[in-house]
UniProtKB/TrEMBL annotation:
HAMAP family found in the cross-reference section: Ribosomal_bL28 (MF_00373)
InterPro entries the UniProt entry points to: Ribosomal_bL28, Ribosomal_bL28/bL31-like_sf, Ribosomal_bL28_sf
Basic and acidic residues: bias regions: 184-200
GO cellular component terms, semicolon-separated: mitochondrial large ribosomal subunit
Keywords: Ribonucleoprotein, Ribosomal protein
Family: Belongs to the bacterial ribosomal protein bL28 family.
Species per Swiss-Prot/TrEMBL record: Punica granatum (Pomegranate)
Molecular function terms, GO-annotated: structural constituent of ribosome
Entry protein name: Large ribosomal subunit protein bL28m
Database matches in Pfam families: Ribosomal_L28
Length: 207
């Protein structure tokens, strides 16, 4: 099963929405996607990076007889992490697309760097338009920088919070499981030293 670029364009615009597209993206899509382009149907559900089903001949060694055959791309289902979305994306990709993603530095960078005419699947075009829109909104946000004194205060506050949390956990364990009946090593030494001091004072007084 295959679908043409015109149907692909309609589905992408329906999913993303023309208002959510960055300026000039729709015109670029119309130029890069020919209306007569045919893509295999299973590529609709993944990122194939230009790898689709291929057809050829199987030639016998004895008589050179030819019979038609096809080569399907090696498709894997992977979980790819997106920094802009802050979550993993489960998507079907080809091994060639995985190498391209690793070379680009991640799924976000691959979608941003790859031209629209090479994203020849509906899912790839949808994610590329969505990631571009999110990065455009991120670029409009204001960035606030803290002074070194404020950063030192924040760091000290986090350290104090961790110490309080540890003390609370220790107290909770003590109440939950009860105190230990055995005296600590430091307490034993303190009592022994106290007894020796008392004995020394008694001997000095008697003498």
């Amino acid at each position: 099963m295959a679908f043409r670029g015109r149907e692909m364009m309609k589905k992408v615009l329906k999913k993303v929405g023309e208002d959510n597209l960055a300026p000039g993206v729709k015109e670029s899509l119309e130029k890069c996607i020919p209306k007569s382009k045919i893509v295999m149907g299973r590529a609709n559900r993944g990122i194939f990076a230009g790898r689709h089903i291929r057809f050829g001949n199987r030639v016998s060694e004895d008589g050179g007889n030819k019979s038609r055959r096809s080569w399907k791309p090696n498709v894997q289902e992977k979980r790819l992490f997106s920094y802009i979305l802050d979550r993993h994306i489960r998507v079907k990709v080809t091994t060639h697309a995985l190498r391209c993603i690793d070379k680009a530095g991640g799924i976000d960078e691959y979608l941003l760097k790859t031209p629209y005419h090479k994203m020849d699947t509906e899912l790839g075009l949808y994610w590329k338009a969505k990631i571009e829109k999110l990065y455009e909104e991120l670029g409009k946000m204001e960035v606030v920088f803290f002074s070194p004194e404020d950063e030192a205060k924040f760091e000290q506050g986090f350290k104090d919070l961790k110490l309080e949390e540890r003390a609370t956990r220790r107290e909770f364990r003590r109440q939950m499981y009860g105190g230990s009946s055995k005296p600590k090593l430091g307490e034993d030494r303190t009592e022994d030293n106290h007894e020796e001091d008392v004995h020394t004072h008694q001997v000095a007084a008697n003498s």
